[in-house]
Amino acid sequence: MAYAPVGLNATGGVAPYTWTVTSGGLPAGLTLGSDGSISGTPTSAGSFTFTIQATDSGSSFASVPGEISIAPPLAADLLPSCATYCYVELGCVSVCGNFGQISGGVSPYTFSLESGVLPSSTALQGLSLTGTFSGQPGWLGFTVRITDGFGAGATLSPRFWMLAHISLASGVCYGDYNSGCTVKLPYSGGPEGVMPSVRLASVGMNPNRGCWDPSATSPPKGATLTAGGGYVTVVIPNRLINGYGAVWTVVISDQNLCSAGTNCVSPAATVTIGVQCG
Fold this sequence. Notes:
By secondary structure, the chain is mainly beta. It is 0% helix and 50% strand. Strand 13 (138-147) and strand 14 (153-156) form a beta hairpin.
């Protein structure tokens, strides 16, 4: 951007004065005018030192040292992870809202929404969105304007793709002494191709439906709870002499897309289980 003119003054001697750069050099693109002003549009960044001399009509002269720092031009870029879309999962506790970075320019910087709409329940803070993403799955885009301390501007236009929050369906698993029982609970949402982890959150009572124990407080020996292929599979083994009855509370979780070590956890699902005794 154009450099604000800087005027140099000389007093005494015999006017008019002649101005020259006697050592060092002005930044490329800036010139020293006949009136002692420095102006122009710099073409390279850096710190430049020089000496300017004023000579009067009687050949008397005086010198003054100078230094000008030229900042690189303001630029803004999307983070590599947001090059196409910034992928986020709706409803996660920690939000991955960072989408861009700044280079060059002169602080302080200001940020404003120039066009578009921010994702529901988020707010703009620098080149990041704060809050917890909510609303419907899908994508939207918006444009942010960045202005530096000299008034130079740049824009950035991220697109956020909101994935459905991971969820797990409830189900029932009834069987008998000879067969045990198996049930597959479908899960959905979260990032595609990422295997969720599954855990048993609690075990409660199941009202008695025959000869199984309605007050079981832990899984029977040999029971399994696994995730894969779009399902959580519950297997209760057969040959349970006393039967088994319980209500399991199950949750699944996946890795937060932008926060290593933080998980997005599904709402709890229940599995009502009853296996008749032998």
